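Sequence design from tokenized structure. All designs in this work follow the same two-part layout: the structure record, then the generated sequence. An example of the structure record is given first.
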């Protein structure tokens, strides 16, 4: 059943921007606009829970990388080391790109960093662009290494 719709001049002028002359009527133009909106909403949908490697799994590789770099290093060096140690554990979603074009694993590693600062494992007052282990972070790495040495192969 057809309906009558009244729109203002401004809305009509905006709709004309989406219409193909001599081809679209009001309804087909409105459908085009709704399809565009749907595509934009699809781009904003979040990934399903569990689709990417949990950020918690990045914590020890980040701390171990920093430990090897004398507890302090530029972000780029840390991230290169973290990727090398985790690349076999990362899945297709982790290696995919976010809406901003960045690899998702990179964002997960940054989320892990924020949590580690909150939990006192990384220093909160490190200079911009530098990540630094706290004394607690050093202890966690050393305890993890000692645990691996004691575990029979």
């Amino acid at each position: 059943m057809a309906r009558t719709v009244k729109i203002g001049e401004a809305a009509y002028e905006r709709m004309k921007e989406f219409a193909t002359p001599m081809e679209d009527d009001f309804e087909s133009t409105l459908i085009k606009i709704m399809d565009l909106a749907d595509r934009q909403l699809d781009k904003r949908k979040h990934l399903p829970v569990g689709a990417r490697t949990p950020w918690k799994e990045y914590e020890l590789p980040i701390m171990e990388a920093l430990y090897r770099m004398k507890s302090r290093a530029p972000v780029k060096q840390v991230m290169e080391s973290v990727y090398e140690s985790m690349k076999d554990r990362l899945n297709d979603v982790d290696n995919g790109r976010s809406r901003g074009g960045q690899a998702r694993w990179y964002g997960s590693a940054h989320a892990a960093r924020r949590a580690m600062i909150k939990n006192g494992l990384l220093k909160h007052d490190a200079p911009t662009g530098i990540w630094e282990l706290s004394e607690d972070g050093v202890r966690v790495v050393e305890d993890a290494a000692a645990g691996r040495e004691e575990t029979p192969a």
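The chain has a mean pLDDT of 88. We note this feature because it recurs in several other targets discussed in the main text.
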